[in-house]
Amino acid sequence: SRHPLCCKLQTAMRITLLAASIAITSGLRPLRRTIQHFKKTRPAGLWNDATAPTYDGTKPLRVCVWNVQYGAGIRQHYFYDGGDAVSAPRPEVEQGIKKIGDAIATIDPDVVLLQEVDRRSRRTHKIDEFKLLRERLDFPCAASAAYWRVPYVPHPKNEHVGRIGMHLCTLSKYQLQDATRHQLPLLRESRVRQLFNLRRCVLETPLVNGPTLFNTHLSAFSYGDGTVERQISRLRELVEGKEFLLAGDLNSLTPYEDASTLAKDEAALYPESNTPAAPLYVDPNIVPLWRDASTRRATYKPWTSPAPDRTIDHAFCSPGAAFAGGGVFATDGYLSDHQPVVFEVSF
User: TM spans, by residue (predicted)?
Assistant: First the structure.
């Protein structure tokens, strides 16, 4: 039999050759743009209407935080959840984005922090979901930052992901000062795999005359390798000394949950004795939305469960600010494997 190291080298060479062939056939610009995402900090896409109002702090911010699962819904059993599906039928994606827009319109937030928004990805038929949502909703200001943008992903075997562009998107009724993408620590894997995998990040958007919004989506499937802990540490550095709202899908449980109560395969996703999110809950300079077990709401529904069974979507604000409410909005069926989290925060 072949030596394991030899097999790994051959696999790495095949992937490198594939990357080179993509660069030659589709031009170097997409590959250069992909590599740029290894940079620690750079400007993000910003759409700002100078006629929009500025936040004056006289009323609480109404906020919606939602991982929309790229508008694909939960009818398909996707490969990352143990199934075979990669793409969703175009009518399902179009209808899903419409219903997501309808739900957000009903919630009527001042600010929306979205994760997993596809922009011209093959799996969602090259639909720019960010553009559709902006056209559907009345948000004059917005920002977008890619955290999975690759010209071609040769995985899984049965159907390649192909071209992918998945973004964090922030929508606001108030003017944004600017937009910055901060690179987070990557999974502990080879540089070649990192080229094709997600590059988790934070989208920072300060409101003019108001708090700074931090939108993020941390690593899944790290299986306790320390990646999420390093990402949490970076989040704490970014918010230090600022008036802020930090929210998103942290792929980590709250300190009030026990992973052993989940199904065996699901519990394996959270092998740490203490949740990686714990430092955010004990830091005296950070105020959590989920203050204790009684205020926590389940936000995530795995494929194997008929209803949400854990909380991996979180929100935090700076000292002096205060949360009000805090719950999940019941959508028309499950439009995503996450439920939208809705709350108000006063600064």
Answer: none
pLDDT-derived band at 317, boundaries 50, 70, 90: very high
Task: Give the 3-state DSSP-derived string for 179-192, with helices as H, strands as E and coil as C.
Answer: CEEEECCCCCCCHH
* Burial zone of 70 (CB within 10 Å; 0-12 exposed, 13-18 middle, 19+ buried): buried
In sequence order, the 6+-apart residues with CB closer than 8 A to the CB of 112 are 63, 64, 65, 66, 104, 137, 139, 169, 170, 171, 172
What is d(CA 194, CA 268) in angstroms, rounded to the nearest whole number? 23
Nearest Cα neighbor of 319 from 250, 240, 249 is: 240
Please tell me what DSSP assigns to residue 317.
Answer: E
Q: What is the C-alpha to C-alpha distance for residues 89 and 113, in angstroms, rounded to an integer? A: 26
Joined together, the tokens standing for residue 2 give: 């072949």
Q: Are 254 and 274 in contact (CB under 8 A)?
A: no
Buried b (16+ CB within 10 A) or exposed e, 110-119: bbbbbbbbbb
pTM here is: 0.91
CA dist list (Å): 254 to 40, 51, 133: 28, 40, 30
DSSP 19-41: HHHHHHHH-HHHHHHHHHTTSSE
